[in-house]
Design a protein that fits this description.
Blueprint lengths: L6 H15 L5 H19 L9
Helix pairs in contact: 1-2
Length: 54
């Protein structure tokens, strides 16, 4: 499931990648990385995120 994270969290992700790796990433890339981290968390937690109902 894809989420759009807050601008503050995206900015923090961009800053951390720049500080730790010297790499500039776009807000879209940061959002994709955050989605991957969230998916990894859910996989280790053994839960599935709830899908929104239409």
């Amino acid at each position: 499931m894809q989420h759009r994270f807050s601008e503050k969290l995206i900015s923090q992700c961009i800053a951390v990648f720049k500080e730790k790796n010297g790499v500039d990433i776009s807000p879209e890339t940061a959002n994709e990385y955050l989605n991957s981290f969230a998916d990894l968390y859910f996989a280790y937690a053994g839960v599935r995120p709830v899908q929104p109902t239409l």
